[in-house]
Amino acid sequence: MVIETHDLIQISSPMELINNDQPKWVQEIFPKSLTVVVRRSPFVEGWIPVGIRGIKREQRFATYVSTSAIQKVITPYQLVREGSWVDLGAERKKLPAMSALPGISKILSGYNWGISGSVGFELATRTNTAKVTSDLDLIWKVEKPISKSSAQALLKKLNMFGVHADLQVIQGNNGFSLEEYANSRSTIMVKTLKEPILVHDPWIDSNRVER
Questions:
Q1: pLDDT 10s digits, 68-90
Q2: 21 catalytic residue (yes or no)
Q3: Residue 137 catalytic?
């Protein structure tokens, strides 16, 4: 089984996590979903780097889960393939980030894209994590580089639904913001397994680090 950054992992019990001084909010929230998000960090043999997300933006907790504890893996791309927003309740569909998905799915038809962030978490777990103010976090596995003008044109289409669509380009283990690339005049940040790096051309320079 291949586990990648942004994947969601369901486990059977909070006891499956490394218990490293979990804050109170984790103990209150996590048992409701029993779902963690794979972090962009080096894997330790037998252990997967994961994060627990709370209701508030600042509620993020990094930990590890044993590979033997995995009950189910849900990928951001799976959420798209299954049209996971179609059977949401009427009230949740009204959220800007949710209501944008039908239109965005048409624009990105043919792209290898997925949904992450609070929206992806809610679609996977049916816990109400998205808010009226939530951005729509998307990821895209690219097959070939695109120009800045093409990136700007794509982002303009994605952002015409009344919510900010943040599209992260995925290259192996690395990722960078398409918006930052489209608007950059110098360097941009590429996230890697070890630490972020600044590059002039993310399509070329990020290949110099482990992918």
A1: 999 999 999 999 999 999 999 99
A2: no
A3: yes
